Sequence to fold (101 residues):
Amino acid sequence: MTGPDENIALALRAFALQVQKATEASDLNPSSNRISEEGRQQLLQIAKGIEALAEHSETASYQAFVRLLRKAERAGATIPSNTVFTVGRAFIDRLYVRPSG
Fold:
């Protein structure tokens, strides 16, 4: 079983993947909203920031996640609600899981 910080890292990595996918979505689906080249670059930078947060999940905060989520949305990404829920839930679980030992 994984600990709460590991769960946060996994959830954040899934979030980063969704942000990266948003840069490709408008190319694959012509009926979707087109993301500008500037928006693509912003999303790739945001995804890198999310990955960095995941690498330091033991100090990652919910507030940092929300800031990155809002930046991604402003840049044109549509993040599935289940991804947002999973990340939020991982942070909530951290509050209630007691370290063993």
